[in-house]
């Protein structure tokens, strides 16, 4: 399901990636980072999907929370391993969510 | 591949959806809307991936461009059909991209 975020404004980190062929350790690390992110102060939610392109969007209550997560010691190691092993390329966008709305079948 | 967007700021429409079981007409409409979006003034790029959750992010140069696309006659029909047939639920977030950076293997 998609993330249950509060009323805007809040922040989104849009992480789009193309993987290498390397599988070893990836799923475990991705899972660990997901769990760790959820424990961080200011974390609001996460959404992820992958085909050829992978998209993971995490939501945060402030730019400070995003910066803290980027600099988290374990996350830093994961980022380095990601560049060395698992990702061919990726792009990260930091965005301020200004509005949202949703539809649900009755 | 991910979208080749210009230097920020620009805008993102984050569309997260959960589908119904209905397949009829969906792929054709999704493809037509993708092609039509790309022809709109102010369109900058799009990224999409789907597993249980579908994530499509389109990028635009202004809120006006986003509003114009939302109100586009053909797109309005597609939105109505989407609510009637193809989507169990979806959430749309409008966000202003403030920063981006990328990694690419040498």
Can you lay out the helices and strands and say which pair or pack?
Two copies of one chain form a homodimer.
Chain A (H helix, E strand, L loop, with lengths): L9 E10 L6 H13 L4 E8 L3 E7 L2 H9 L1 H14 E18 L2
Antiparallel strand pairs in A: 1-3, 1-4, 2-3
Helix pairs in contact in A: 1-3
Short description:
With 106 residues, chain A is of the alpha+beta class. Chain A has helices at 26-38, 63-71, 73-86; strands spanning 10-19, 43-50, 54-60, 87-104. In chain A, 34% of the residues lie in helices and 41% in strands.
CATH architecture identity of chain A: 2-Layer Sandwich
Number of helices of chain A: 3
Percent helix among the residues of chain A? Answer: 25-40%
Strand order of the largest sheet of chain A: 2-3-1-4
How would you describe the oligomerization state of the chains in this entry?
homodimer
Taking all residues together, what is the mean pLDDT of chain A?
96
The greatest interface between two protein chains, and residues involved on each side, is: A-B, 40 and 40 residues
Please state roughly what percent of the residues of chain A sit in beta strands, choosing from under 5%, 5-15%, 15-25%, 25-35%, 35-45% or over 45%.
35-45%
Weakly predicted, low-confidence segments of chain A:
none
* Helix-strand string of chain A: EHEEHHE
């Amino acid at each position: 399901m998609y993330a249950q975020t509060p009323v805007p404004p809040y922040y989104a980190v849009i992480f789009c990636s193309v993987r290498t062929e390397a599988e070893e350790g990836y799923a475990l690390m991705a899972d660990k980072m997901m769990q760790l992110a959820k424990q961080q102060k200011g974390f609001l939610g996460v959404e992820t999907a992958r085909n050829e392109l992978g998209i993971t969007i995490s939501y945060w209550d402030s730019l400070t929370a995003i910066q803290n997560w980027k600099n988290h010691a374990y996350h830093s190691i994961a980022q380095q391993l990601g560049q060395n092993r698992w990702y061919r390329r990726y792009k990260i966008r930091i965005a301020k969510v200004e509005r949202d709305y949703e539809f649900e079948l009755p």
